[in-house]
Every structure is written in C-alpha cells, then in structure tokens.
C-alpha cells in the first residue's frame, strides 16, 4: 500500500509540474493572434496592451476616454487599434463589437478577451453606502464583464480562444466594506461559468488562485513589486509621503478586527503591541481618518466638513463587560488600574456601585506614590458633553484627575480634579458639564501615596447634564 501511495504521489507531482511548466512556455508565434482588452486607459490594461503589442500580437484596446486612446497610440505600433468603450453601457459594447468585426480578417476570430475594466466606487461604513453605490460598481466590474464575454463568444469560438477575467485579492478576502469587494467576489464566482457556457473557452487560473490571465506568459513580465493603480490616484506622491508618516491609528474606521479571516477564532490574526487596545469595532471616522482624507483630497479646512454620526453616549462603562470602552493608557509607562470584584480591604469599597455584585476599577498604594490612567478607546466628538462617574477615595493623599486627551498629539488638559478625604468612605458621584472644540478622549488618572482609589459607572453623554429637582433639601 505504501508503494502504491508513493507511485500515485510521484505521478501527481510530475503531472502538475509538467502542466505548470507547459503553461509557462512562450507561444511559438504571435502573428495572426487577435486580443481584445478592456479598460486600457491606465493601470494593468494599459500595461498589458503595450506588452502584447510589443510581442507582435494584434491588440484591440478599449478605452473609456479619448486621452486614454491617445496615450496608447503614442507608445505603441500602428498594429494596435484603440476604440471607445464603456462596458457599463450595452450600446457601447455593441458598437465596439461592430468595429472589431470590421477590422478582423474574414473567418478569423478573437484569440483572447481580457476583461480588465474596473472601478473602485465608494468606500465607507456599510450604513453609509446606498444601493446606488453598489449598482454603479457592479455595472462595470460584474455586468460589464458578463456583457463583454457574451458579446465576444462567437468570435472566441472561431479561434477556440480564452477569457481572462482580472479580479482581485478583494474577491477572496474582504479588506473593507465596499461595493468593490462585493463586485470582485461576484466576478470570482462568475469566472468559472465562462468555461461552462462554452467548452471551447479556456480560462486560466493565476498563481494566487484568483481567475485572471496568463495568455501563456506570466504576470512576472510586469515590473516586480506592487503597482499603484489609478483607481484611487487622486493625490500626488508627496501627499502619500505625508500620510505614510501619520501615527498608526487603532481607532480608524477601516481597521480590521483581531480575528479578521481567522480559521481558528481562538487565535487572533491581528494583535496590538499594547495590551488592552481594542480595534476593528469603530463605526465613526477617527481624527486621523479625517486628516488623511483632507490631505489626500486636498480639502480646505473650514471646520470639520466630514462629521461622523454621533452616539448618544460615546463612553458608558460599568466595567462588568469585557468590551467596556475604557482601557489602561497604552502610552503611559506608569502603574495600571486593576479590575476588582467584592471587598479588597476593610477600608476600601466592599462592592461595586452598579449593582453590588459587579466589577469596578481599583488602585492601591502603601507609602509609595502610584499613578495609573484609563483612557477611552473611542473618540468623543466636539461640543458640549456631560461627564459623570462614581469614585471611592479613603485618604487625603489620593487624587482623581479627569482630563481631555488629544487623539493625535497625546497632549492632556485637566478638566476636573478631586482630592480624597478620610471623612468620606463611600461611593460618591461627580457630574459636570464641559465643552471641547476638537475630537478628544477622556482620561481618568488616579494618584495615591497611602490610600485606595476605586471608580465605577463612568459615562460621557452629549449635551448638558440632567437637572434633578431637589425636594426638602435633598
């Protein structure tokens, strides 16, 4: 049995190795081969058209703009023919097909169709995107591909040709909640149907597993390294250089979660080098997101043009749930607040404030000054807010400082400072209004030399603090 298994394994290795090698062999000749490529204005389509023209193939290059056609004609031979093409428009496809048929010799078809045309479309959180955003992208990236393939099938059958559908890694892994990713997933699903529809059509599979073409030569003929497509090329290279030096943003709305594409959900695929940092759960643009957008799209600063939708309570933390929203400040090298439940000592809190059976945050010191800071994970939008929390401090050496922390610079501004007292040893509420003019995070710093500090039920809500009617002096 072992011998049989070894023989079968060797046969498989030889078969797949030989098939791979045959696919890498160059064509014996290019004369008389006609290739149709869509989306040749810029990017991969532009590069492929020039490459195949240089190798002697007859290329029909579809371009959306007159400028795209002119640029190709300047750098290619007279053998290359350009034509206007908008794959989202069925009439444009019909006119293009009539032009191609008129240029082809009698009884000659198309050796290959390369469906390269594509657009990026809108990018943003799912609830910001409309049906129209998806329809626009699908009309090019999916329906344009289908319509072009159907239109060219009769000509492809004449030459027993092949269809090459240019897709993307976004068709295998959703890197962002965009119509682009949805369209590429659909294109991946459609591509094998090109084989089913007509057995004379060959569709090759790339080395990375995505469908899209080889034309019997590998993409290694393009320059090595990544290629920056013009899909997002709105800004200049110097602006991208500015973006590259922006601080890393865990709170970005585009940041993936810790278990993105994980096969084992006990093992995160992405983790932070700072403990207690949460990411991948944000629905608002962060300060750095807005700065990046402003820089890349050269927006004039006239206040925050892009206003993220506000939550009623950007911070509401009882410390009873694992994803509270307040974490130990990862930029601080000081001590850390610890999570406690029930009594810690005779003079400290015996229960939490929320319900008597939950958790609270705790800091203790004995003859040594200890300082620890909590900071909110999510940003708080500019404007008036109400801050409230409950604290427990049993000594006059204990201090609780509530500050505003800038998201980008990390600078802090004190909003409220509370000094402990030996006369008060119970949970005490503090509530106050404050107004901040820039996006910020709340920071709660505890400092103790001999006593204990505990905090619970921290809330920041938009608007003014509620006014309670006091009756009988209460």
UniProtKB/TrEMBL annotation:
Domain of life of the native organism: Eukaryota
Gene Ontology cellular component annotations, sorted alphabetically: membrane
GO BP: any one term: proteolysis
InterPro entries in UniProt: ConA-like_dom_sf, MAM_dom, MetalloPept_cat_dom_sf, NAD(P)-bd_dom_sf, SDR_fam
GO molecular function annotation: metalloendopeptidase activity; oxidoreductase activity
Protein name: Retinol dehydrogenase 2
């Amino acid at each position: 049995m072992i011998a049989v298994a070894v023989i079968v394994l060797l046969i498989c290795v030889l078969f797949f190795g030989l098939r791979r090698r045959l696919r890498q062999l160059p064509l014996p000749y290019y004369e008389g081969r006609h290739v149709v490529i869509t989306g040749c204005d810029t990017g991969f389509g532009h590069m492929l058209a020039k490459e195949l023209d240089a190798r002697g193939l007859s290329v029909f290059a579809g371009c959306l703009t007159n400028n795209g056609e002119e640029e190709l004609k300047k750098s290619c031979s007279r053998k290359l023919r350009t034509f206007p093409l908008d794959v989202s428009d069925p009439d444009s496809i019909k006119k293009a097909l009539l032009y191609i048929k008129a240029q082809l010799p009698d009884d000659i078809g198309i050796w290959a169709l390369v469906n390269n045309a594509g657009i990026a479309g809108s990018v943003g959180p799912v609830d910001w995107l409309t049906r129209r955003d998806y329809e626009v992208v699908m009309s090019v990236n999916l329906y344009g591909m289908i319509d072009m393939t159907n239109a060219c099938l009769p000509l492809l059958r004449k030459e027993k040709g092949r269809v090459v559908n240019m897709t993307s890694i976004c068709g295998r892994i959703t890197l962002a909640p965009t119509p682009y990713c949805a369209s590429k997933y659909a294109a991946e699903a459609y591509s094998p149907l090109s084989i089913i529809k007509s057995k004379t059509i060959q569709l090759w599979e790339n080395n990375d597993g995505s469908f899209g073409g080889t034309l019997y030569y590998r993409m290694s003929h393009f320059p090595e390294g990544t290629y920056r497509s013009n899909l997002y090329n709105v800004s200049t290279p110097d602006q991208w250089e500015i973006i590259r030096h922006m601080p890393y943003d865990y709170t970005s709305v585009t940041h993936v979660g810790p278990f993105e594409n994980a096969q084992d959900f006990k093992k995160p695929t992405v983790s932070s080098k700072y403990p207690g940092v949460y990411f991948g759960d944000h629905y608002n643009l962060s300060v750095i997101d807005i700065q990046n957008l402003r820089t890349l799209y050269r927006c004039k600063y006239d206040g925050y043009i892009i206003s993220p939708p506000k939550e009623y309570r950007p911070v509401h933390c009882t410390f009873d749930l694992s994803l509270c929203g307040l974490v130990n400040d990862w930029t601080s090298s000081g001590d850390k607040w610890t999570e406690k439940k029930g009594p810690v000592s005779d003079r400290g809190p015996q229960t939490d404030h929320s319900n008597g059976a939950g958790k609270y945050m705790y800091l203790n010191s004995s003859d040594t000054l200890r300082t620890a800071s909590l900071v909110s994970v999510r940003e708080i939008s500019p404007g008036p807010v109400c801050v409230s929390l409950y604290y427990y401090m049993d000594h006059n050496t204990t201090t609780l400082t509530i500050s505003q922390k800038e998201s980008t610079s990390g600078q802090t501004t004190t909003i409220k400072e509370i000094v402990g007292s030996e006369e008060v040893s119970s949970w005490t509420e503090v509530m106050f209004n404050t107004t901040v003019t820039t996006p910020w995070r709340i920071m709660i710093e505890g400092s103790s030399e001999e006593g204990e500090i505990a905090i619970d039920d921290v809330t920041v809500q938009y608007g003014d603090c509620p006014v309670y009617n006091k009756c009988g002096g209460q």
